[in-house]
Amino acid sequence: MRQTLRNVTLLMSLVLMALATSCEKSETSSFAVPSESILVRMPGESGTTNFDSSNIASIEVTSIPKGWVVNDINLYEGTITVTAPTSFDDEEMIDGDMVLTGYTPTGNTRKVTIFVAILQNNDVDFTQSPANCYIASKPKTRYLFNPYVGGSSTPLATESIEILWQTKRDLIKYLDLRDGKASFYLEMALNDDDEELNEVYAGNALIGARNAEGELIWSWHIWVTNSDPTTEVITLNGKTLMNLNLGADCNSNGERDGDKIFNSYGMYYQWGNKTPLVGPFSWDFAGNEDDAMYDIEDERVALQYETSSATTGTLAWSTANPVAIIKGNPDNDYDWLYAEHDNTLWSESHKSENDPCPAGWRIPDSSIYSTLTISATDDAINWQEAQGMYGWHLEDTATGNAYFFSAAGRRNYLDGRLDIVNTNPVRPVPWSGYYWTTTTEGNDAVAMYFNLNSTTRTWNGFDAHYPMHRANALPVRCVKE
Question: For the segment 347-406, what is each residue's pLDDT rounded down to a tens digit?
């Protein structure tokens, strides 16, 4: 009998050990800090961030920059609070990485790294200037904006924000949503020797807002540039116009430099849509390849190509799917909207909710370009020489001043592909430029258009009022309100 009990006990022990081993192997857990940072404004200030965890029983500070103190780790609330050093007499650190280790009940571990820093520059606060685009140009700076409003201050039920794409890895960092404000951070650009350049890595990013159900309800374009688009301006017909395409880092001014040409293109927009679409991967449109986009995990994001339909051809669907270009449908005269044309999406009289420009700026109507023409100097040069400029100097006939506009082509209304070449066999064009305006004409919208013809310069073309299908995606310039 004792032997039987002993055998039963041994068997139960083996079963329990097997169960424990099985549970340990199948144990799941997670530990993450969405913002990846705690940023404070001054020495001695405390800062807090949230973390998400599952099956984490305790958290240990594995390492922390000298002088920084962890005040509290609240497993129930999911918060971490630290305090920055008050002085730097003993090599205390202004910034650095803090490492935390989370332990599961069985002793398994999950590690996270949090960047802690005392900000060296004042915050740039856009919370009182809502828009669909924010210009960011200062390195080592935190930018704040209001995630509860769109271009017309419409309240949004934002529960979380995320980077949908960015044209360079780590272009914007440390995205956070706290106390009703969204924020992101720009780092300092480095040269090949890892020396600071006192400038930013230029590019573009799209931040998305999700509601409590996880639905994507809005997005904001972050225009990261080393230029100042609000001061690099020209005057046309008494109006102040940016001298840069929306999303560009520079104006190439006709220089035959591939990097400058590429950096002058900017973003592309379907008529009436606020959401930017990336342009070509290379300055000469080689291979017709889309520019690179990366998510928060540094994985490539691909642009989606969708045909307009009763499902996809709506403003609501486009808002929920901002990484898609909606190809035109002949059933609606090649508008990206399927049911009917909507002339109110962009307005000639005021800045609309879907206007893609920064605060204080909007898309101009076609009258602003009415006095322009190709400059006589450009029109007279050898076409092979002109071809290398990828654009024209356009002369204002009212003042005699000339301004350069890049020939950035378009995304074609038929299939969404990048198109800089007119393939007309009678009038072959090596490049062409298009710029949307708010003006509409019948079922089409109006663009400013120009081209270079490779057969004879007498066919070089310019039209300040050129009707085009609305599913085309074109560059834009913003005019001051």
Answer: 999 999 999 999 999 999 999 999 999 999 998 888 778 888 999 999 999 999 999 999
Sheet containing 79-83: give its strands across: 46-50, 79-83, 69-74
CA-derived radius of gyration, the chain: 27
Within 8 A by CB and 6+ apart from 326, the residues are 270, 306, 307, 308, 312, 313, 317, 318, 336, 471
Quick one: tokens of 43?
């020495």
Residue 192 CA to residue 442 CA, distance in Å, equals 53
Number of other residues whose CB lies within 10 A of the CB of residue 330: 9
- Separation between Cα atoms, residue 176 and residue 9, nearest integer Å: 55
- State how far the alpha carbon of 311 is from the alpha carbons of 86, 213, 304, 339, in Å: 57, 20, 15, 10
Extract the runs of DSSP E, i.e. beta strands, from 187-292.
203-210, 216-224, 233-236, 239-242, 269-270
The answer to whether the CB of 102 falls within 8 A of the CB of 122 is no
Please state the pTM of the whole predicted model: 0.90
Query: Is-contact 281 417, C-beta < 8 A?
Result: no
Give residue-wise pLDDT tens across range 125-151: 999 999 999 999 999 999 999 987 777
| Contact present, 375 and 391 (Cβ < 8 Å) | no
Q: Position 332: which residue type?
A: N
The closest alpha carbon to 345, from 479, 269, 438, 471, belongs to 438
Contact 202, 185 (CB under 8 A): no
Give the Cα-Cα-Cα angle 189, 193, 196 (nearest 5 degrees). Answer: 30
Amino acid at 5: L
**154: amino acid identity, one letter:** T
Q: In this predicted structure, what is the pLDDT of residue 12?
A: 45
For 148-157, what is each residue's pLDDT tens digit?
A: 777 777 889 9
Cα–Cα distance between 303 and 210 in angstroms, integer? 20
Query: Residue 270: what residue type?
Result: Q
Residue type at 28 in one-letter notation: T
Domains in the chain, please, with CATH?
Answer: 30-118 (2.60.40.10), 121-226 (2.60.40), 234-481 (no CATH)
| Backbone phi, psi, residue 270, to 5° | -75, 145
CB 98 within 8 A of CB 82: yes
Q: Is residue 184 classed exposed, middle or buried when 0-12, 13-18 and 19+ CB atoms within 10 A define those classes?
A: buried
